[in-house]
Amino acid sequence: xxxxxxxxxxxxxxxxxxxxxxxxxxxxxxxxxxxxxxxxxxxxxxxxxxxxxxxxxxxxxxxxxxxxxxxxxxxxxxxxxxxxxxxxxxxxxxxxxxxxxxxxxxxxxxxxxxxxxxxxxxxxxxxxxxxxxxxxxxxxxxxxxxxxxxxxxxxxxxxxxxxxxxxxxxxxxxxxxxxxxxxxxxxxxxxxxxxxxxxxxxxxxxxxxxxxxxxxxxxxxxxxxxxxxxxxxxxxxxxxxxxxxxxxxxxxxxxxxxxxxxxxxxxxxxxxxxxxxxxxxxxxxxxxxxxxxxxxxxxxxxxxxxxxxxxxxxxxxxxxxxxxxxxxxxxxxxxxxxxxx
Length: 341
Known about the structure:
A 13-stranded antiparallel sheet has the order 6-5-4-3-2-1-15-14-13-12-11-10-9. It starts with a helix and ends in a 5-residue tail after the last helix. It contains five helices and 15 strands. The model is unreliable at 4-22 (pLDDT under 50). By secondary structure, the protein is α+β, with helices and mostly antiparallel strands. Strand 5 (105-111) and strand 6 (118-123) form a beta hairpin. It is extended.
């Protein structure tokens, strides 16, 4: 019914692209808000590995030749604590690790090919803000695992309600990949709080494709910016799978940003995020500590030692064996009766 109502409302909206006063989306922001809130509450149950692959071609860097590097982020979350382990491999031959656990956050560095890690800084506070993280650990994890719900720097429901953009066309029956999506075209709103990228410039226009069968998350999105010395286009593709609970779990996010300056110089930047995420109950914490990198734990930091699973299995096997021997002895004794004497 929700989908049908949206189709009927959108069909009644004007569909010309000649600078209309702006369209509204009755019902869609609310539907997206409900879906986003369900997914946001589900995020703390996710764990896994996120691998970033970067590639850039910039005339002002490396003689215009492609530069590539990668970052591997490991995410573990448990009730009351988010665990973080991030490893960066830079083109300059350095490796950096950022760790966060329940007792401290720290960063390590070493030259590629060497064994010894050097401790750069440590903060004795859970969810601390290290310079390498965008906000707290929990905020960073939410940002990495919910890119398919982010539009123009805002989470989707807020972006659709924002006065920073003006919606000029809605196609609720947009056909793509053999399925039906909702496609929304927009321009910047000169009278609103026009969205600006971090490097300056001004949003010109763009479009976004939403998936009504996957909680109204974003399938594809394009935005174009105008600068004093050129133009830039940023395009995003999102791949996700629906788990058994109906949540769209992000699997891949690909972004290509390219443009041209007034002088004719071109640039291209590409990043692909591969996400291997699953639900987590109570993950181990040792691999998110200094000990995992051959360094001593800070003074006063003590970790509770959990009994390994195999020890419990051995104990259980021993108890069962003892009970089996006892019951066998008891059965033989009852079978033969009490001895004469």
